[in-house]
Write a structure and sequence with these properties.
about 15% helix, 1 helix, alpha+beta
Length: about 100
């Protein structure tokens, strides 16, 4: 009886773990208004983390940081992207802010 109950609980635990749904990858493609600089943000955890890949082939790992409104992603080298409803602000390496756009 105890072995049957243990086996049933083990099978239930295994099946529950196998049934966990993985979030689909989200990709946002950004463009700047004037300079032609393009980049994308790819995330598979609802933008808790994201990989930023730019038109030059550079990659940066960004993490979600607190923001009053919208989503803000940043790394420890001064790069940040703050975006909401198709528009955003890009700051590369603590330089000047650049307005960016993306399609939702």
């Amino acid at each position: 009886m105890k072995k049957t109950l243990f086996l049933a609980l083990t099978v239930t635990a295994v099946l529950s773990g196998c049934n966990a749904a993985k979030q689909p990858k989200s990709v946002l493609d950004f463009t700047t208004e004037n300079s032609g600089y393009k980049f994308s943000l790819a995330s598979d955890d609802n933008f808790d983390t994201a990989v930023m890949t730019d038109s030059k082939g550079d990659k940066r790992i960004l993490k979600h940081v607190p923001a009053a409104d919208g989503i803000k992603m940043a790394d420890d080298k001064g790069t940040s992207v703050h975006f909401k409803k198709g528009y955003g602000i890009l700051n590369l390496n603590s330089g000047a802010d650049t307005n960016v756009m993306y399609q939702e």
